[in-house]
Amino acid sequence: MSTPILVILAVIICIVLWLVMTYNRFIVLKKRVDEAFSDIDIQLKRRFDLIPNLVSTVQGYAAHERGVLENVTKARADIQNMSGDPLERAGAENQLTSTLKTLFAVAENYPNLKADTNFLELQRELADTENKIQSSRRFYNGNVRELNIKVNTFPAMIVASVFKLKERPFFETESAEERKNIKVAF
Question: What is the DSSP letter of 170?
């Protein structure tokens, strides 16, 4: 074989190897994003399972605070009817977080409730779960960031467009109102 043919074959082999490696990197990134979203789901399920216990514990002490309890229950039911779309889920989860803050603010007005062992344990479990949810969201967003950078940088963006690989949405708070602390006035 002549030298020009060997050079052309070497270039073609290098290009094919680069394409394969780039595509495989995209697959790894997509799987990491999927895994991270699954981690969020696991923590949300844990929180979802804790809420009825918390609500029933608070109901015994705060029977006249029906509106707060109904909002928590409604937000939980809304999440149950959600699809897997991260943006839609983020909004519903943020609403539930907001109603839970209100529930804990109401609980502050009931000294017996604040001292109740069941309530304290549920509150601790829920706070731990909220921390894990935040950590899972950060992990998800970090993986989404890596994938989105890869999808948008040259020359990997060529492979992304050929295989129709798209950016993924971040899991984020939708409005400035949801970022504020809850203020409860009686």
Answer: -
